[in-house]
Amino acid sequence: MLGLSQIRNIDRIVRRLDDLSKISLTERGVTRLSFTKESEEANRLVSHWMEEAGMIVRRDALNNVVGRYEGTQEEAPVLLIGSHLDTVVEAGKYDGILGVILGIEAVQILHENGICPKHPIEVIGFCDEEGTRFHTTLLGSRAIAGNFLQKDLEAVDKDGVTLAKAMREIGMDPTLYRLAARDPNSILGYLELHIEQGPVLEKKNQSCSAVSGIAGQSRLEFRVEGAAGHAGTVPVAMRQDALVGTAEMIQAVERIALQYESLVATVGKLKVYPGASNVIPGLVEGAMDLRSIDDTTREVALKRIQEECQQIANRRKLTCEFQLVFESPAVHCSSHFIGIIESVLEEHHMDPLRLVSGAGHDAMAIAKIVDTGMIFVRCKEGLSHHPDEFASQEDIEVGLSVLLNTILKIIA
């Protein structure tokens, strides 16, 4: 095992995090959308760092940045390490980016110490995980996994620019997207290091953990309709108040979610019509999100929620309709990789802690074709997708050591 004293170069890591965070559309936080001048500038900078680390760099057919560090056996399956370079609007500087920079740093340590593994290593900066610009997700990783579709090129941003047009504007040929797909037989596996984006590691007072899997998700839109009326003339007992009915339904969502340990459920969006203080709400439209690492739990809970909401609607003489708008199954990390990460955690005198990711990651797409492992790094107060997102230098150093020693165990 390589110890912290052998791999410490925190100044370089911090400098790179800061340099990349300055490439932003907004002054507050980091806003770097895919296929923009900001993303192109970030790609050039990351490519330069990869070259400094001894890698041969290329862009694939969907604009993922790929740096390759050759092994002693060029034909051996390659170990992929990656995360994303795009952000949400006014994001922090660690989400996704930390995984790319520490992947580069791990290879640079091997290069600087003259270590040439049997298996090649490729570090990938994925072009679009967040989906902020085109309201899609995992474009880069889905392309590598061979699950990018022709219709994805028709996705449109807020200005009416299609993904295909945006690709052409930066000199890419969108019709060649299939060339980004990789042969699973040529890949040894995939590792992704990421900030936790949650509070568990901070509560456990631990720098890192393994990730057991990524929660499956159901996203629904709903519509609750009653009868609008004058706020001063319709007795409360005689109303068909859509908002009061919706409030009871939201409480039912929370009550049911609390009955399942692995389930989280959120009603995060409401629109009330007609939206006047002196008019009884006649219509409410909203959105609901359910996630669990166990797909059966998620499906059973969703059915219970819909049934109870319908009962509430019937009792209050309302109508209630749900429409499923997005669904993805749970993804489980490789037990082999989890075991390796846990052994490295123990060597670093940490508990072999496993966490479930409630957020999506590029690992979701890559796991469809190869074994996948993930490492979480503690972030302050579990805050993410926010300018105040923060990971300490100490935790970053530990995360790098865990990543590097996991790599060495996998390619040994």
Unreliable spans: none
Write down the overall mean pLDDT: 96
Specify the overall morphology. Answer: globular
CATH superfamily of the largest domain: Zn peptidases
* Largest β sheet strand count, sense and barrel closure: 9 strands, mixed
Task: Kindly report how far apart the N and C termini lie.
Answer: 12 Å
Strand content: 15-25%
Helix content: 25-40%
Describe the structure.
The chain has 412 residues and is α/β, with parallel strands linked by helices. The protein folds into 2 domains: 4-214 and 330-411, Aminopeptidase (3-Layer(aba) Sandwich); 216-328, Alpha-Beta Plaits (2-Layer Sandwich). 34% of the residues lie in helices and 23% in strands. The chain has helices at 4-7, 10-21, 37-52, 97-112, 139-144, 163-169, 200-204, 242-257, 295-315, 335-347, 363-366, 393-411; strands at residues 56-59, 65-69, 78-84, 121-126, 187-195, 208-214, 216-225, 229-230, 264-273, 279-280, 283-292, 319-328, 331-332, 354-357, 372-377. Strands 1, 2, 3, 4, 5, 6, 13, 14 and 15 form a 9-stranded mixed β-sheet that branches. Strands 9-11-7-12 form a 4-stranded antiparallel β-sheet, with helices on one face. A two-stranded antiparallel ribbon has the order 8-10. The termini are close together.
Element layout with pairings:
Layout: H1 4-7, H2 10-21, H3 37-52, E1 56-59, E2 65-69, E3 78-84, H4 97-112, E4 121-126, H5 139-144, H6 163-169, E5 187-195, H7 200-204, E6 208-214, E7 216-225, E8 229-230, H8 242-257, E9 264-273, E10 279-280, E11 283-292, H9 295-315, E12 319-328, E13 331-332, H10 335-347, E14 354-357, H11 363-366, E15 372-377, H12 393-411
Helix pairs in contact: 2-4, 4-12, 8-9, 10-12
